[in-house]
Amino acid sequence: MEIRNLSTVRELRLQHEGYRQKEEKADFGALYDKEIQRTGLQFSKHAAMRMSERGVELTSKLAVDLKEAVDKARDKGAKDVVVIGSSSAFIVNVTNNTVVTTMNAQEMKNNIFTNIDSAVLL
After folding, report:
1. Could you tell me which InterPro entries the record lists for this protein (predicted)?
2. How many domains does the chain have?
3. Are 75 and 94 in contact (CB under 8 A)?
């Protein structure tokens, strides 16, 4: 009887962890979808992964600033642009409205941006 109860407790704990993880993912997914709808920008899987790894936080203000920068670059005929802020940089394919990759301030110091035709400073 004790083993069965232990097993049941373990199963309930695993179920609870699964539900909690789903809720956290849903919250992030909902916020991400909201920003995409609001700004029209999309993030490639690679860019989303780099943001997570590099600790780049996408705030509502940054999302709006990024969208405005991409719109300005589009107006000037840019196809691939680097948008440089004080603490992060984003490489964006203007044609597809897609952020291709991102990096934090430390990585910007030691990198060369290639395959871009324009730059926008935030």
Report:
1. Flagellar_put (IPR013367)
2. 2
3. no
Cα 30 → chain centroid: 13
Extract the tokens encoding 102: 């991102």
Map tokens 């395959």 to a residue. 115
- pLDDT tens for 104-118 read 988 888 778 888 999
Give yes or no: residues 63 and 85 share one domain. yes
Could you give the CA distance from residue 9 to residue 84 in angstroms, rounded to a whole number? 51
- The 3-state secondary structure of 60-105, one letter per residue: HHHHHHHHHHHHHHHHCCCCEEEEECCCEEEEEECCCCEEEEEEEH
Query: pTM of the predicted model, to two decimals?
Result: 0.68
Kindly state the tokens that stand for 110. Answer: 């030691």
Other beta carbons less than 10 A from residue 83's beta carbon: 25
The domain of 84 spans 41-122
Quote the tokens at residue 79.
Answer: 């196809």
Pairing of strands 98-104, 42-43: parallel
In whole angstroms, give the CA distance from residue 94 to residue 71.
Answer: 8
